[in-house]
Every structure is written in structure tokens, then in C-alpha cells.
Amino acid sequence: MTNNTIETILKRYSCRDFTGRLPADEDLRLIAKAAVAAPSGSNRQLWRVIVVKNRRLISDMEGEGLRMLAAMPDKTMYERIMSRGGKLFYNAPCMMVIPLAKAVPPGAELFDCGIIAENIALAAASLGIDNVICGLTVFCFAGDRRDEFNNRLGFPPGYEIGLSVLLGFAQTPGKPHEPDTAKISFIE
Ligand SMILES: Cc1cc2nc3c(=O)[nH]c(=O)nc-3n(C[C@H](O)[C@H](O)[C@H](O)COP(=O)(O)O)c2cc1C
After folding, report:
1. What are phi and psi of 170, to 5 degrees?
2. Residue 20 is part of which domain span?
3. Would you say residue 130 lies in a domain?
4. If you average pLDDT over residues 47-64, what whole number do you get?
5. Would 8 be classed as within a structural domain?
6. DSSP tag of 14
7. How many domains does the chain have?
8. How far apart are CA 97 and CA 112, in angstroms?
């Protein structure tokens, strides 16, 4: 037995090679609506969803993120990106940026952030739009261009980057990872 929701969950995979073709505005609106339908602790909704189609802004952020990663004492992450083609955003034509306000106690907003990101990923996958959640986006905000990007993205005061989800269409469609059912146990 299955259904469309389970099928979407099982077919989602992280795309790291986009063609650059933009999804339709209508689909982006639907995905953004699915995003803000996400549950959050006490329904506090300490997030925003910013749909970025501005290639210049995406490219400026990517350049800064790579620069910050290259400057890290531990080069593991930077080298991994370089070995995958040197792209942080994989030529994605669109990103949904999720800035967050701090919860009390601080840190609780991160659960909500992961959930809204997954809503975006699943809504996109259900519409045939390839995507990848991109935690490395935080590096674009790790240096002295943070305020510039906060402004260009229109973050409300007090909001800081959480995650982004890159959206578009794959050059070569990928495959979902094999779910590891050995991680599941039942206690009766
Ligand atoms: C919170 C979070 C952050 C992630 N950040 C990145 C990222 O910055 N770059 C990237 O290529 N993939 C990123 N991913 C994707 C994971 O690497 C991916 O989900 C994992 O390897 C499993 O592969 P799958 O999504 O194809 O099943 C992130 C995933 C999550 C949940």
C-alpha cells in the first residue's frame, strides 16, 4: 500500500546539478505556501521564506560562501565542494532562503527550520522540481558581507540565516538513497 505523499517522500533526492531553467512562478508560489504551512513549536513560526530568482544575488552569495569556506582552517568541506565541481549552489536558478528569529530558549527555532525546509523539498519533489537543502548557505553570511546580504534579501530585523533550499531542474536526474530500514525498531 502506498499513496502520493509516501511516493513523493521516497522519490525525493538531493540534486547537485541544475540546468538553470526556472520553475514556473505558479509552482514556486505553491511550494512557498506549502512551506509556511509547516508545523512549528507553539505555532511560533519564527521563520520567513524568501524566494530568490535574482541570479546576480545567488551568484554573489555563492562567491562569498566559497571565499569563506576557503578561508576556514579545516579545508575538508571546501575540498569536497571543489571535488564536486566547485559550486556551492550547483547552478540552481532559484533558492528559497529561510531566515530565522531566535526562539526562547535559543536553538529551538532550528527544529522548525528543518521542518520548513523539508516541506519545501517535498512540495517541490511532488511537482517534479528538483532540489537540495543547502546548509552551507550559512557561510555566505559568515563574513563581512552578512549585512549586505541580509539587506538584499530583506531579512526582517533580528532574523539570521537558517537554511536555503535550491530549486530547479536536474541536468541528469538522480536517485533517492536506499532507506535503511535496519534503523527502525518496534516495541510491542
Ligand atoms: C540540514 C541539511 C543541510 C544540508 N546541506 C547541504 C549542503 O549545504 N550542500 C549539499 O550539497 N547538500 C546538503 N544537504 C543534503 C544532504 O547532503 C543529503 O540530504 C544527504 O546526503 C542524503 O541524500 P539525499 O537527500 O539525496 O537523500 C543538506 C541536508 C540537510 C538535511
Report:
1. -70, 145
2. 15-168
3. yes
4. 98
5. no
6. B
7. 1
8. 14
Number of Cβ atoms within 10 Å of the Cβ of 37: 10
Q: How far is the CA of 13 from the centre of ligand 1 (A)?
A: 9
CATH code of 154's domain: 3.40.109.10
Report pLDDT for 106.
86
Of all protein residues, the one whose alpha carbon is nearest to atom 6 of ligand 1 is 134
Q: How far is the CA of 148 from the centre of ligand 1 (A)?
A: 26
Task: Pick the more confident residue, 143 or 105.
Answer: 143
- Residue nearest atom 9 of ligand 1, based on CA coordinates: 134
Beta partners for residue 166, in sequence order = 95, 132
Does 5 map to a domain? no
Confirm whether 79 is domain-assigned.
Answer: yes
Ligand 1 site residues (CB inside 6 A) read 13-14, 16, 114, 132-136, 163, 176-177
pLDDT at position 6: 98
| Cell numbers describing residue 72 | 576556514
Other beta carbons within 10 angstroms of residue 35's beta carbon come to 24
Position 105 pLDDT exceeds 90: no
Q: How far is the CA of 188 from the centre of ligand 1 (A)?
A: 33
